[in-house]
Amino acid sequence: MPMKKSNTQSKEFNLLFIGDIVGEIGREKVKKILPKIKKEYSIDFIIANGEHLSDRVGVDIEIMREMETFGIDFFTTGNHVWRNDSFKKEIVKKNVPVIRPANFVSKYPGHGFLTVETKIGRMLIINLLGKEGIKEKVSNPFKKVLSILDSQKDFDFAIVDFHAEMTSEKVAMGYHLDGRVAAIFGTHTHVPTADAKILPNGTAFISDVGMTGPANSVLGVKKDIIVERFLNGTGGKFEVEDQGVGVFNSVLITVEDGGNVVKIKRIDKT
Ligand SMILES: [Fe+2]
Ligand SMILES: [Fe+2]
After folding, report:
1. Confidence class for position 9, pLDDT limits 50, 70, 90
2. Ligand positioned closest to the Cα atom of 211
3. Which of 9, 178, 206, 212 has the smallest set of CB atoms within 10 Å of its CB?
4. Ion ligand 1, residues whose Cβ is below 5 A away
5. Which residues contact 243 (CB under 8 A, 6 or more apart)?
6. How far, in Å, from the CA of 241 to the mean position of ligand 1?
């Protein structure tokens, strides 16, 4: 849906997107930091990538509910969404505000996109998984997103969580959708990028929001295990880092009535 022209009396809608929440340390960061940020920036709606909302990977419904009490309204996911099998039964329930990638080849429960009401109209939220460097079988995300946008009529603006490994694939998706969606938030690498910008036709874009989790870890996993894996090909089972300080990575966008994005900025806290 093309974005409409802004006018001087537009309402502003502040949307915060939180990078993959990992482990107890990540959840504690959300608990401590989110209420303050919400107030400080007058945030209207909060989305988080929740593919790790169990002990390490997959989604645990109890933890997800706890995150809602701290202010998160909606969850996107990614390649790890089914690692906790019990969540397949939960995602089909009507009151679970979670989507999973829309372009899985296999038939899975749940939705790849959903529309929610906001103060500036109906927001279509789409979750896509990249093809490059991702083990899961997915269809072409560039084609899939066009088919979703073309098939959905009842929305005022759209945002996309593009959960992908390669920066080139993410940047290309930005230009592919520029002017068609309000924002594209890259996720999956857990490493925040410094390229938050508004593209030429008005779409807000960032390659990767980053992670909310243990700061001194390799993407959330205990660093020694991963270093050993790269050094000697060993290192044992992945364990989430549960010691030390945490980091909170997020991106804020301000959208005007009509779907025009007027601001995108990183909000990172340690
Ligand atoms: Fe992740
Ligand atoms: Fe992921």
Report:
1. low
2. 1
3. 9
4. 20
5. 214
6. 14
